[in-house]
Specification:
8 helices; 49% helix; 5-stranded antiparallel β-sheet
Length: 326
């Protein structure tokens, strides 16, 4: 009888141990999965014990360790700006733990801000376009009626009007979006567009414009590429106007590679002050400009399957435009 009881006890113990092993194995597997999920999360995650000590934190939380001490633990959900970034902070308190997460929403907030600014800018551009158009017509009429000695004043007025019209056109095109209508055109036609834009710029210094373009055809939207080239031209001219020297040079050159047609723009103006906001809409460090020229130019370049690079040794840009496959 006692022997049977011992055998039953051993059998039960063996079954309990086997079950315990399975449970422990499942628990370890579940814990491993949970750890992987926590690491997979794009946001920083901290879990605190009742006493405020760390129970768990993922790698992102370790990277943003200093951010943790800026978080107001008494709030639930709020936005926190820290080191030029914006984080969405969420805090959930339970009976045993406090769970805190921080999600980087900088790009989301940037897109919301740009959308809002774009709507306002488009509205203003539409409102300004009509009166500027009327002023432009009146200035042209006035040019034909004033004395020769006063014509230069009217011509300067026309240059200023042209600059405002360019800002309006750039703003509307940027807010509407860029769609390239590509076809073959002569590169010399783009050169003519750049030279005409140069004539409309009010120059106070002796600035030399050199355009070394080959007599070839390229594939693209000449209207968009004219706007792009004009933006880089005016960016260069503005930089020279800000420079302490009384003269300067702007160089446009062309080269062809297997996959790209390359336009290089160089100038002798002041260095770029902040490369991080170079293509950021509505951001500019120049005395002139509205912060959309290079942002729009980048969109035009992308619409031509291209890219743009800053020159390292000289002041300027290298613009790659995708070539049509033969």
């Amino acid at each position: 009888m006692l022997e049977n009881s011992n055998e039953d006890f051993l059998d039960n113990l063996e079954e309990i141990l086997a079950t315990t092993f399975v449970v422990e194995k499942n628990f370890n597997q579940m814990k491993k999965t949970m750890d992987e999920v926590i690491e997979f999360l794009p946001n920083a995650l901290w879990v605190l014990d009742k006493d405020g000590s760390f129970f768990l934190k993922n790698t992102e939380a370790k990277i943003l360790s200093t951010l943790f001490y800026e978080i107001d633990k008494e709030k639930n959900n709020y936005e926190l700006e820290y080191h030029s970034k914006i984080y969405l902070i969420k805090i959930n308190k339970t009976e045993y733990n406090t769970i805190i997460s921080a999600t980087d929403i900088t790009e989301q907030k940037r897109d919301e801000r740009l959308a809002s600014m774009g709507k306002v800018s488009a509205h203003l551009a539409h409102e300004i376009r009509n009166p500027i158009g009327s002023i432009s017509i009146l200035a042209s009429t006035l040019l034909n009626k004033v004395d020769i000695k006063n014509k230069i004043l009217v011509m300067e007025m026309q240059k200023s009007i042209y600059r405002v019209e360019r800002i309006i056109k750039t703003t509307l095109l940027f807010t509407k979006g860029v769609n390239a209508n590509k076809k073959l055109f002569l590169l010399k036609d783009l050169k003519n567009e750049i030279e005409e834009s140069y004539e409309y710029y009010s120059i106070t210094k002796d600035i030399e414009l050199n355009i070394n373009f080959e007599d070839v055809e390229i594939f693209g939207d000449i209207e968009l590429l004219s706007i792009m080239s004009q933006n880089f031209l005016y960016n260069a001219l503005d930089a020279i106007e800000e420079d302490e020297n009384e003269s300067g040079i702007v160089d446009f050159s062309f080269a062809r590679e297997k996959e790209f047609d390359i336009i290089t723009v160089k100038d002798s103006g002041v260095p770029i002050k902040n490369k991080n906001i170079l293509y950021e809409p509505f951001q500019t460090t120049k005395l002139k400009g509205h912060g959309l020229g290079l942002a729009l130019s980048l969109e035009i370049i992308k619409a031509h399957d291209g890219k743009v690079e800053l020159l390292e040794k000289e002041k300027g840009f290298k613009i790659y435009l995708g070539r049509r496959s033969e």
